[in-house]
Amino acid sequence: MEIKLNEIYCEDCVSFMKKIDDNYIDLTVTSPPYDNLRNYNGYSFDCEKIAKELFRITKKGGVVVWVVGDKIVKGNKTLTSFKHALTFQTVGFNVHDVMIYKKKNTPFMRSNGYTNCFEYMFIFSKGSPKTFNPIMEPTARNGYEMLVANKKADGVNKKVLGKLNKEKVKTNIWEYAVGLGGSTKDKIAFNHPAIFPEHLAEDHILSWSNKNDIVFDPMCGSGTTCKMAKVNLRNYIGCDISQEYVDIAKKRIEDTPIQISLNNL
Ligand SMILES: C[S@@+](CC[C@H](N)C(=O)[O-])C[C@H]1O[C@@H](n2cnc3c(N)ncnc32)[C@H](O)[C@@H]1O
To answer: What is the domain range of residue 156?
Structure first.
């Protein structure tokens, strides 16, 4: 295979993926251009072709995280997000979860509706996910408490001393600050119009992959997924159709100190 690990390529992602072996990628974390919301350099997009290639190159048990929202056209939400999810299901992926990416600070007001503050994060898996490292969060209370054990028919609750854990698995709604200092501190990344928060990419990388795994972003833009893969000692492969964005991604990754490459082991 001519594709090298830990590189960013400038190409249309469908033709690029054709060069990747079957069952090669552990995890994809990506966000497609959708609904002409933004004018990316060289915009082009075919969801079905991308989904089919992603299915072929993903390992059994591998995961694709697909972050997407909807535009409102003449008062009507496009539901492009759901159309994409159905396409991925049709080509063979399981829709393992439908998660929410909530934005802490969103400027997009709507005069006759509530301010939209989220996008979907679809978790598509090729069979059951082979890796799940759940992210934990603190519980509101912990220690020992008298807890209801079982409710009897006479309405009297039996109480027993129970232990409340310090931590619980996070819910599937994840909230992130966006903008400079929120999404990233890398000023250069903001030359791209729609970057991921670094923490979003990192949380998925930690959840669905292990060290030395191969993390892919076929539409990598400013390179957030690849940067966070590098930081977390995963291998990465990035691709974007725009040379301008590829240059940004390469610069960001160069400026990121940690580098591991299975090629060098
Ligand atoms: C939503 S942005 C991704 C942003 C990225 N997650 C980040 O953090 O910077 C979508 C990207 O898809 C790229 N793109 C559009 N059509 C493409 C194609 N056919 N092949 C590869 N990349 C494409 C655009 O250039 C754009 O950078």
So the answer is: 136-169
DSSP annotation of 214 reads: E
206 and 218 housed in the same domain: yes
pLDDT digits (tens, 9 = 90+) for 171-206: 999 999 888 878 888 888 887 888 899 999 999 999
Give which of 243, 188, 187 is closest to 220, Cα–Cα. 243
Taking the C-alpha atoms of residue 75 and residue 110, their distance in angstroms, rounded to an integer, is 11
Q: State in Å: Cα 224 to ligand 1 middle.
A: 11
Kindly state whether residue 2 falls inside one of the protein's structural domains: no
Using the mean position of ligand 1's atoms as its centre, give its distance from the Cα of residue 187 in Å.
18
Residue identified by tokens 């291998």 is: 235
35 part of a folded domain: yes
For the Cβ of 198 lying below 6 angstroms from any atom of ligand 1, the answer is no
Strand order in the sheet with 94-103: 7-10, 235-240, 214-217, 25-30, 58-68, 118-125, 94-103, 173-176
